[in-house]
Amino acid sequence: MKKSLKILFLLLFAMQVLPASAQKFGYIDTEYILNKHPDYKVIQQELQSLSNAWKKEAQNLDKEIKDLYDQLKAEEVLLTEEMYQERQEVIKQKQQESQAFNSRIFGIEGQYYQKQAELLQPLQSKIYDAIERVSRKNGLAVLFDKAAGPSAIIYTDPRHDYSEFVLEELGIEENN
Questions:
Q1: Cα distance between residue 105 and residue 100, in whole Å
Q2: Which tens digits make up the pLDDT trace of 45-71?
Q3: DSSP annotation string for 23-86
Q4: Residue 10: count of CB within 10 angstroms of its CB
Q5: Would strands 142-145 and 25-28 be described as parallel, antiparallel, or unpaired?
Q6: How far is CA 121 from CA 11, 36, 101, in A?
Q7: CB–CB of 172/37 below 8 Å?
Q8: In which element (H, E) is residue 145 found?
Q9: Which of 66, 92, 71 is nearest to 100 (CA)?
Q10: Residue 67 burial (CB < 10 Å; 0-12/13-18/19+)?
């Protein structure tokens, strides 16, 4: 009898402790959240506009190089060796300028990516703050990002998707 009473108390104690130690998990899709946010569309348009202007400038440099090369080929028979070498040197300089421009604008730490980071940082901070508030409100121990990559999450149950809660926290309506 005493042994069964101990087991009963042990089971009751375990039932009280186990739920308290359970952690609550969820996930969000930041790509979905960003695409629903009106500021993101404005940022994307601004970046597209900048990108188009810079691409046009790069194309103009490339066209200038091509024109110089075509002109050199057309006049090749009329030029002395020294003149030919001078023009080839001008073409090489223009090619280096073009490469430097592309690297400066579209390179790893180029102006395009710096501008993208500058424009997105306030929005990302706003979204992160909303994510933190939603996590605290819902008592989540861990919140995964479905958009982080294919290896981050293999399966998701829509019941645990907190993306709509984050949108709600940001004040974004579902009508988009």
A1: 8
A2: 999 999 999 999 999 999 999 999 999
A3: --EEEE-HHHHHHH-HHHHHHHHHHHHHHHHHHHHHHHHHHHHHHHHHHHHHHGGGS-HHHHHH
A4: 10
A5: parallel
A6: 51, 17, 25
A7: yes
A8: strand 142-145
A9: 92
A10: exposed
3-class SS of residue 142: strand
Q: Which of these, 148, 163, 124, lies nearest to 39 by C-alpha position?
A: 124
Task: Enter the pTM of the model.
Answer: 0.69
Instruction: Give residue 140's Cα distance to chain centre.
Output: 25
pLDDT score of 153? 59
Domain segments of the chain as ranges = 19-170
Q: Quick one: which of 30, 39, 40 has its CA closest to 128?
A: 30
pLDDT, tens only, 102-133: 999 999 999 999 999 999 999 999 998 998 88
Assess contact for 172 and 41: CB atoms under 8 A.
Answer: no
Place 7 in a pLDDT band, splitting at 50, 70 and 90: low
